[in-house]
Design brief:
Layout (H helix, E strand, L loop, with lengths): L10 E3 L3 H11 L2 E3 L1 H6 L5 E4 L3 H13 L3 E4 L7 H11 L1
Parallel strand pairs: 1-2, 3-4
Helix pairs in contact: 3-4
Length: 90
């Protein structure tokens, strides 16, 4: 579904596939596993809405997969991890 003039929601992923399926129905997208969303060449940006303790791990996986990542605050619960994510993003 179209979120804005520049962003189209393509897929939803979760460690709980049922949660991803519900979100994909609501937003007219596809339900994918985490690995599938990271491997999908059509996806440029991943919105990370995990719990704060998982922000670092999930964002790092996204960046290492070549994806841009947007996360709610905090970027990480540890300052060193946040610095690492900034370096990876560059």
């Amino acid at each position: 579904s179209k979120i804005s003039n520049k962003i189209n929601l393509i897929a939803c992923a979760s460690i709980n596939i049922e949660s991803a399926k519900k979100a994909s129905i609501t937003h007219n997208g596809e339900a994918l596993t985490i690995d599938e969303i990271l491997d999908n060449k059509k996806i440029d940006v991943i919105l990370n809405l995990t719990i704060p303790q998982a922000h670092y791990e999930v964002s790092k996986k996204c960046l290492l997969a070549g994806k841009n990542v947007y996360s709610e605050k905090p970027m990480s619960v540890k300052f060193e991890h946040a610095k690492e994510l900034v370096s990876l993003a560059k």
